[in-house]
Amino acid sequence: MNELEQVARVPVSIYSPDGLLEQKDQWVIEETPVTLYINGQEMVTLLCAGHHLEELAVGFAYAEGFLDSREELHALRIEHEHGRIFLEVQGKDPLAFGLWNKRTITSGCGKGTVFYHALDALLAQPMGAGPSFSARTIWERMEDLHGLSQTYKRTHGVHNCALADSKGIVVFRDDIGRHNAVDMLVGHTFLNELPLDDKMLVTTGRLTSEIVIKAAKVGLPCLVSRNTATTLAIRLAHDLNMTLIGYARAGKFTVYTGEQRIV
To answer: Contacts by 240-249 with C-beta closer than 8 Å and gap 24+?
Structure first.
């Protein structure tokens, strides 16, 4: 699906406090429910823009612990007309499926889900030193992100996310939910066997605890947003030895944790 297929034109009326200004067609973002099944079991319905569904499904499964390697991914089938994705996973401990019922509904767009029980394992092994980035590089990657999404420019209805390194943007995705966009990025790197421990996640979405946990679970050491961070996200990032940067706008940014990676 290309960017034009993610949007639709609808008739709207534009009003000011003084009354009707104009009637016109306006671009809005498509919203599509897609249900993910893993080994025949219905796991979750994701509200998304309906594109890059293969990456979305694989990234979600990998970030939530249903996949650990390419060898475990046996089959993937998408039924676009019915809004269903079927993943077949081999060699996975059934415990992961049982624990799914203990998931926490999070603050993410479309009610994101995340396993907070994974925190114990993550906190036991904080991230290593990881890469370093100059302040100029961080700012340039945020500027790069702003120039990429035609869907956002048309609708202002999506979150933009990208994986980047010191040279530029590696892969870009957008969606109505920031969780979905991050899962697509993770799915892309999983399917293409790209490393994550030398990259930063650049996003327009809020930096909340579930985004920090999702990034930590896949080994992303640095998160950069034009938006704010929550207190729990900051505490977790500090304990996980992650770099958390917010308010990257107007020529400056705020470093909440992990300042040692800024050179």
So the answer is: 240/122, 240/123, 240/126, 240/127, 240/212, 240/216, 241/126, 241/127, 241/128, 242/127, 242/212, 242/215, 242/216, 243/130, 243/200, 244/207, 244/212, 245/138, 246/207, 248/138, 248/139, 248/142, 248/224, 249/142
Domain ranges of the chain: 32-117, 135-261
Mean pLDDT per 10-residue interval, the chain, length 263 residues: 66 82 85 90 87 93 87 93 93 59 46 51 74 93 87 79 95 90 95 94 90 90 93 90 92 92 91
CA atoms lying within 13 Å on the CB side of residue 167: 3
The architecture in CATH of the region 135-261 reads 3-Layer(aba) Sandwich (3.40)
Q: Are the beta carbons of 214 and 114 closer than 8 angstroms? A: yes
The fold for domain 32-117 equals: Ubiquitin-like (UB roll) (3.10.20)
- For residues 49 and 37, the answer to whether their CB atoms sit within 8 Å is no
At position 242, the amino acid (one-letter code) is M
pTM equals 0.82
- Rounded to whole angstroms, how far apart are CA atoms 87 and 53? 12
The neighbour count for residue 122, using CB atoms within 10 Å, is 16
Q: Hey, which residues are catalytic here?
A: 109
